[in-house]
Amino acid sequence: MILGSNDKPAERGVKKEINIEMTQAKTLGELKHSGFTSKGIKRELRDNLIENLKGGISVFKNIHGYEDSVIPDIERAILSGHNINLLGLRGQAKTRIARSMVNLLDEWLPIIEGSEINDDPFNPISHFAKQTIKELGDDTPITWIHRNERFVEKLATPDVSVADLIGDIDPVKAFNLKLSYSDQQVIHYGLVPRSNRCIFVINELPDLQPRIQVSLFNILQEGDIQIRGFKLRLPLDIQFVFTANPEDYTNRGSIITPLKDRIGSQILTHYPKNIEIAKTITRQEARLSESQKAMVKIPELAVELIEQIVLEARKSEYVDAKSGVSARLSISAYENLISTAERRAILTGEKTTMIRISDFEGVIPAITGKVEMVYEGEQEGPYNVAQTLIGKAIRALFDKYCPPIEKLKKKGQESTNLYKHITNWFEKGNDLDLVSTNNDRQYMAALNQVDSLAAFFDDHLKNTQQSEKYLWMEFILFGLAEHSKLSRNALTKGFQFKDLVGSMFEGLG
After folding, report:
1. Would 411 be classed as within a structural domain?
2. Which end of the chain is more exposed for a tag (fewer CB within 10 A), N or C?
3. How far apart are CA 451 and CA 486, in angstroms?
4. Other C-beta atoms within 10 Å of 370: how many?
5. With contact defined as beta carbons under 8 Å apart, do 267 and 73 qualify?
6. Are residues 219 and 178 in the same domain?
7. Average pLDDT, rounded, for the chain
8. What sign for the dihedral angle of Cα 73, 75, 81, 87?
9. pLDDT of residue 3
10. Which residue has the higher pLDDT, 376 or 387?
11. Residue 437: helix, strand or coil by DSSP?
12. Both 315 and 427 in a single domain?
């Protein structure tokens, strides 16, 4: 669902590029003789998308989870020549999708040199461009801009003004040119006119004040703009892409109905529909150094546990569901988890190490900064909520991969408790300290103290890798604690596991 940052050239999209001879044209006359034909940006996007579809090329290749939902909707909108509104919760790759559309543009585009609004040499719309062609004719100089320069992005904030978007009279320009304020040449164009022949993205559209949204009406429909009394007929050629959270997300604002009516396609985005897609996104987007990759081994269970934490957050009664839980949570948690193991290896002088379940204490800062609490969550406290989410995720995966825990039997019924040999060790008064600063040898030695824990792994988790044995042994202890079969207490550095009943009596004492 998230776009990768390292697109391969073959995946950039447009196969049909403007030939070199055309881009060597330096004047309007040379451009005419080169055979270049002008077309609007929506036609440009449409034609290049058709070429890509025929060739099996996708500019959205590295956006995962949208192959059968959002991406087909976007392609249909482009084929229809629509302006687009991407509606969804935070962290659903809305901005990334908009940015990737740039790769559907022609690689190079000619404009009249010196034009503030990227005037088409064959169809000039500004006073400057028309006057230049009138004076110089075929000798009018042109320049070429790359498609990467044809993307303009604006974050909608309450302080955005009409002048910012549309334009205003520039008194400095009027003074320098000795012109009257009634002269069209004194206009300073805003972001929208300067985005002529470009993709223009407005993020968080509901945050624009309603009176500012009104200023976009005619631009979307007729191409008229008005600046301080100047009635200008500027048929601007812009592909608009808006992004927004659902309107009921907060009380900050909404998209006014007449503006929504003028946006051709509204496309709903979503979170990954399964953990496998989520893991692919997290691995793709996590920023890891080569030294981290070489030092820390990341078992599949640890990656899945991160994604399960995110799933638990999205359905938690402590987290505001309308706010959403961004995919950035899993990415940040993944990075924090690896850094936790890396830090331990550095302190213990080890060259390599493996993720531990106890390392998940290190992902709590990534959780507390990425979720928005409801009142109950605020009362509970962000740290406690994060601990709860980690615990629920462990319990969910324990139930998925480990044999079920036996329910209480009636007197006289035969017990089939597969975990009794593990819990019996703790019932004898033994306890186990897993210290976060222990090296791998000390960590394994501590787990080996528990009778039958290694044998349980060998007998009941045969589909797992032997190299991850101690991670699973630790996971079993955490899972039993989440099912209230063991007591787990936080130490200053790590965790202590004890018999549950003995811990209760100890607490009473």
Report:
1. no
2. C
3. 15
4. 22
5. yes
6. yes
7. 86
8. positive
9. 42
10. 387
11. coil
12. no
Is 312 within 8 Å of 396 (Cβ atoms)? yes
Q: Is the dihedral of CA 174, 177, 183, 185 positive or negative?
A: negative
Length of the chain: 509
CB 482 within 8 A of CB 310: no
Cα 357 to Cα 476: distance, rounded to the nearest angstrom: 10
Q: Residue 490 corresponds to which amino acid?
A: A
CA–CA distance, 278 with 272 (Å, rounded to integer): 6
Q: Looking up tokens 């793709």, which residue turns up?
A: 284
Q: How far apart are CA 388 and CA 436, in angstroms?
A: 20
CA angle 503, 480, 364 (to 5 degrees): 90
Contact 200, 238 (CB under 8 A): yes
The Cα–Cα gap between 309 and 393 comes to 5
Residue 287, domain extent: 275-401
- CB neighbour list of residue 238: distance below 8 Å, 6 or more residues apart: 41, 192, 195, 196, 197, 198, 199, 200, 219
Between CA 247 and CA 444 the distance in angstroms is 52
pLDDT tens per residue, range 105-152: 999 999 999 999 999 999 998 888 999 999 999 999 999 999 999 999
154 in any annotated domain: yes
Q: Which of 397, 444, 403, 395 has its CA nearest to residue 420? A: 403
Q: 154: helix, coil or strand?
A: strand
Let me know the angle formed at the C-alpha of 109 by 223 and 205, rounded to the nearest 5 degrees.
Answer: 45
> Which helix (H) or strand (E) is 454 found in, with range?
helix 453-460
DSSP character string of 32-88:
HHHT-----HHHHHHHHHHHHHHHT--TTTT-TT-TTTHHHHHHHHHHTT--EEEE-
| Domain termination residue (choose one: 207, 234, 268) | 268
Same domain, 95 and 161: yes
pLDDT-based confidence at residue 10 (cuts at 50, 70, 90): very low
pLDDT over 70 at 245, yes or no: yes
CA distance 335 to 287: 7
Average of per-residue pLDDT across 369-377:
85
DSSP assignment of 285-302: H----HHHHHHEE--HHH
Q: How far apart are CA 318 and CA 386, in angstroms?
A: 10
In a domain, 482, yes or no: yes
Q: What CA–CA distance (Å, rounded) separates 295 from 344?
A: 11
Distance CA 78, CA 95 (A): 16
